Amino acid sequence: MKWEAKVIGETVYDMSHLHPCVITMTWPAKGELPEKTVGVAVEYSMHCFTAAISIGSAIYDSALQYQDSKETRQFHLERYEHSKALPALIQNLSDRLCYTTPHRNYFIPMPHPDGVSEHLRLFVYFVLAKRRREDADLTMYIESAHCKEKPKLGRRVRGCSFKELCGKILRS
């Protein structure tokens, strides 16, 4: 989905950085297996730049409403600003560690977009599935991306690289 710009007063918040795109990853030839290039179609949900509406609360402002065919949420300036870093981060996912959640999706903790806040991480939550189209083999639907405290992952938590995850999904 191509998200429309949000206009608040005189300010226009452009959303073109969150339009769908296709990234590619290449596995080098190995033994008798030839080199393989895979396309991943990337789509972003509005949760990357909005937050849940708290109707009746002091922070609710109808001018900040943003909606699609499924839901209405509130435009969130901090999430919007962080979303500007997503396309560049997504382009370089290959070796980043991914972790599963109990909700049948995955997350990747990324450095905070300001490059300074060491105690914060940008958490990118997504689902990954096979896609049978000419332009891509997989679809990565980014469900949400927001900042929170750097987690302390226990010793039992094991991630895999995004590239490994793509390979597992393709083989399933």
Overall radius of gyration: 18 Å
Structural class: mainly beta
- Helix segment tally: 3
Q: What characterizes the major β-sheet?
A: 7 strands, mixed
- Calculate the terminal CA-CA distance, rounded to whole Å: 27 Å
Shape: globular
Report the order of strands and helices.
Answer: EEEEEEEHHEEEEEH
Instruction: Estimate percent helicity.
Output: 10-25%
Mean pLDDT: 87
Q: How many domain units?
A: 1
**Low-pLDDT sequence parts:** none
| Number of DSSP E strands | 12
Instruction: Give the spatial strand order of the biggest sheet.
Output: 3-4-11-10-9-8-12
Write the layout of secondary structure elements.
Elements: E1 6-8, E2 11-13, E3 21-27, E4 36-44, E5 50-51, E6 65-67, E7 72-75, H1 77-83, H2 86-91, E8 97-100, E9 106-111, E10 120-130, E11 138-149, E12 160-161, H3 162-171
Parallel strand pairs: 4-11
Antiparallel strand pairs: 1-2, 3-4, 5-7, 6-7, 8-9, 8-12, 9-10, 10-11
Could you describe the 3D structure shown?
With 172 residues, this protein is mainly beta. The protein has one domain. It has three helices and twelve strands. Strands 3-4-11-10-9-8-12 form a seven-stranded mixed beta sheet. A three-stranded antiparallel beta sheet has the order 5-7-6. It has a two-stranded antiparallel ribbon with strand order 1-2. Strand 1 (6-8) and strand 2 (11-13) form a beta hairpin. The protein is globular, with a radius of gyration of 18 Å. 21% of the residues are buried. The model has no long low-confidence stretch (mean pLDDT 87).
